[in-house]
Design brief:
Number of helices: 26
Largest sheet: 4 strands, mixed
Distance between the termini: 48 Å
Structural class: alpha/beta
Radius of gyration: 25 Å
Oligomer: single chain
Number of strands: 9
Helix content: 55-70%
Shape: globular
């Protein structure tokens, strides 16, 4: 891949001096790989992937237990922790942000200077930052700003107030660290932010940038001839920060959603989710914005609310009636979009459209609980594994082409969820008979979806059977059980019982077992129990101590968010 080829320069030609600068290899390969892929294959929309990675990293970066991009490494257990979203995705996003601020040509010249100066040798973060900053109009300021993003943890949170009372319209800015509800971290933190905005001034849309270092400051909109009709505080979505607008400006931006470019629409979606998780808006406020996002042209923005809706259904809904109401709301919002696409792929469709269809189907089947869709998927799944439409024995032959490729995995999952021991036997037979990696993954996902407890236990047994599964085939089987509320207690007991065997088979990634055990937990007591149960076990596991801290913190934050938002309720959003 382009990422791996980039390591010939970032990692081979110039090598980091120590593990604390792993980002010099991995963040640069992430950034460069995205850039080259975008140039060679524009239709892949690689820049969307970089943005998604950055937004995902912000979730981890909001934790007290997060790490810095440039993180000291003093123990072998800390090395594996460095191979994470902070190093790769946050690092890549910070590089992209400063490239945009400095200018692509000047940034490229700085990188070239860095590579020439340190070719066939070692380098540090300071070397790279100095080389890039030297190409800017403010070397000292850019140097400070760049280091503020890699030498401290956290996501900047900028509160923006539009002020049109003076002769020149301006923005009153207040920056602090973004923190979710219940966080024990301090919000008193500042960065050197390349803060860029776009706004509508009469019939013109203008852009302005400023390097913001103070906790509070005023940014004049020097080009504005009138009070802006709307302000987007993260122009083109290049900034690694979150924002909140004053009430009037927030409503104006929501009304101008169609005028935002695709990256701005995506960071706008993130700003709503961030506000909900920080308690700034309630469930009704969040849900009010979902239809607009769900109708967005770009897949990543359209599907952005799905995770939050699934969370609301499982944790925020107080009873079965509310869960059903959340499911109905999901069908109301996303059902028409799937209906417009249709279940069958069409000739000449883009890959993005096919992925969107698959995502919509999975979401409406699970969170939306669409009975008609579920029945259709079961019928198709039976055709793939060789069962009759009524579930009785059929040919027993695997026919992967019986359904379109985009529907196969979810159809197999549906037939497994509705199936019994005979269905399990058939799926197992097909798994043992094929070496096709894609088919095996889908069959394992299906086996992991078995809702019958004895069959779920049989599925877990495959992981303990020597020689049956490849290392990368454990997750497809376990993930469905992690996501199924009914399957989690037995899954936790299984992890506890077989911990040593599982840790050895996963090494050096044994720390992932913490997230398997903790899946679905959302209470302070469960967080405490997790720390107690795995504290000693994780001390000598690579990446284990930090993984345990982060899992426990996430569980506690889930409880805080649920309790605070449940007290506010859904209002009339589900009627």
């Amino acid at each position: 891949s382009a990422h791996e080829l980039a390591h010939q320069w970032f990692g081979d030609l110039v090598t980091m001096k120590w593990w604390d600068d792993l980002w010099l290899n991995e963040a640069f390969a992430t950034w460069m790989g995205t850039k080259i892929t975008g140039q060679l294959q524009p239709g892949f929309h690689a820049d969307r992937g970089l943005l998604e990675g950055a937004l995902e990293a912000m979730g981890e970066d909001s934790l007290v237990s997060t790490r810095r991009v440039h993180e000291p490494i003093n123990d072998f257990t800390e090395i594996q922790s460095a191979f994470d979203g902070i190093t790769y995705q946050k690092g890549g996003a910070v590089l992209s942000m400063f490239e945009t601020y400095i200018g692509e040509t000047a940034f490229r010249d700085g990188i070239r200077s860095y590579l020439k100066a340190h070719a066939r040798g070692n380098a540090t973060s300071g070397d790279l930052i100095a080389a890039v900053a030297a190409q800017s109009k403010d070397p000292a300021g850019v140097d400070r700003a760049f280091k503020s993003f890699i030498d401290q943890p956290g996501v900047p949170y900028v509160k923006v107030e539009v002020d049109c009372d003076g002769k020149t319209p301006s923005l009153k800015l207040q920056q602090q660290r973004y923190l979710p509800l219940g966080s024990a971290a301090s919000a008193s933190q500042t960065w050197g932010m390349p803060f860029c905005v776009r706004y509508q001034d009469g019939d013109q849309v203008r852009s302005e940038c400023s390097l913001v270092e103070q906790a509070t400051t005023t940014m004049p909109l020097t080009q504005a001839k009138s009070c802006p009709a709307w302000v987007m505080p993260n122009a083109h979505g290049h900034g690694y920060y979150r924002f909140a607008l004053d009430d009037k400006a927030a409503k104006q931006l929501a009304g101008a959603f169609a005028q935002l470019d695709e990256r701005e629409q995506r960071v706008y979606a993130d700003s709503l989710e961030a506000a909900f998780k920080a308690g700034s808006i309630d469930a009704a406020g969040y849900l009010a914005g979902v239809p607009q996002l769900a109708a967005a042209e770009v897949r990543q923005t359209a599907t952005a609310p799905m995770g939050q809706l699934a969370w609301m259904k499982e944790y925020l809904a107080a009873d079965d009636a509310q869960k059903a109401a959340v499911a109905a709301n999901a069908r109301k919002i996303y059902g028409p979009r799937l209906q417009a696409l249709g279940l069958e792929p069409k000739p000449g469709e883009s890959d993005d459209t096919r992925i969107l269809r698959r995502t919509l189907i999975g979401f409406l089947y699970r969170t939306g609980e669409s009975p008609e869709l579920g029945e259709e998927l079961v019928r198709r799944g039976r055709a793939v594994i060789g069962q009759e439409a009524d579930g009785s024995a059929g040919t027993g032959k695997l026919d992967p082409e019986a359904v379109p490729r985009d529907l196969r995995a979810v159809s197999l999952a549906a037939v497994a969820r509705a199936g019994d021991a005979a269905t399990f036997d058939l799926l197992e037979k097909h798994l043992r008979a094929t070496q096709d990696a894609a088919i095996r993954t889908e069959l394992l996902e299906a086996l992991g979806n078995m809702s019958d407890a004895p069959q779920a236990e049989r599925a877990r047994g495959f992981i303990l059977e020597k020689g049956l599964l490849r290392r990368n085939e454990l997750a497809p089987l376990l993930m469905p059980q992690m996501e199924a509320e009914a399957a989690r207690p037995a899954l936790r007991q299984w992890v506890d019982t077989h911990f040593k065997t599982l840790e050895a088979s996963l090494a050096p990634a044994g720390a992932r077992l913490v997230s398997v055990y903790g899946a679905g937990m959302c209470s302070k007591q469960e967080a405490a129990d997790l720390l107690s149960r795995f504290g000693e076990r994780m001390k000598t596991v690579e990446g284990g101590p930090r993984a345990l801290k982060q899992e426990a913190e996430n569980i506690g934050l889930c409880a805080d968010l649920r309790d605070a938002q449940r007290a506010k309720g859904f209002g009339g959003a589900l009627q």
